[in-house]
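DM from R.C. (forwarded with permission)

"hey, sorry to bug you on a friday — could you get me a structure for this? deadline for the figure draft is monday and I only need the backbone to look sensible"
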Amino acid sequence: MRFLSRRLVMPNDLNFAGSLFGGRILEWIDEEAYIFASCQLGAKSLVTKHIGAISFETSAFQGDVVEFGLEVKRVGNSSLTITCVVRNKQTKQNICIADDIVFVYINPETRKPEPHGKTKAELDAEVLDI
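My reply, with the result:
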């Protein structure tokens, strides 16, 4: 898994208990996973279809730096399934794991799903070239 992005936990990201609000981390996961999927497929016209199991494992607090690890789990005809791990940059403890985040390629003109033309082998090979 490659950790590609980081965010600083700010006061407006906290819940009433002073830890990172779960809704904020889910917003970040959706955004980071979209960016990753878009870069993998070379396409901007993707929609989030599904986010599967989400497991919160530890808290993050103001001033913590969290990082997002992303990897392709499956490649479908018009879909891409991503796994995202959010961890504390300093401690390396997992904060949250979001599994089975599914994005679907949508033709921007017809607004209907279409094949994106990539395979898992192609995407894995491209990762090795980086």
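R.C.: lifesaver. Helices lie at 22-41, 120-129.
me: no worries. The longest strand covers residues 94-105.
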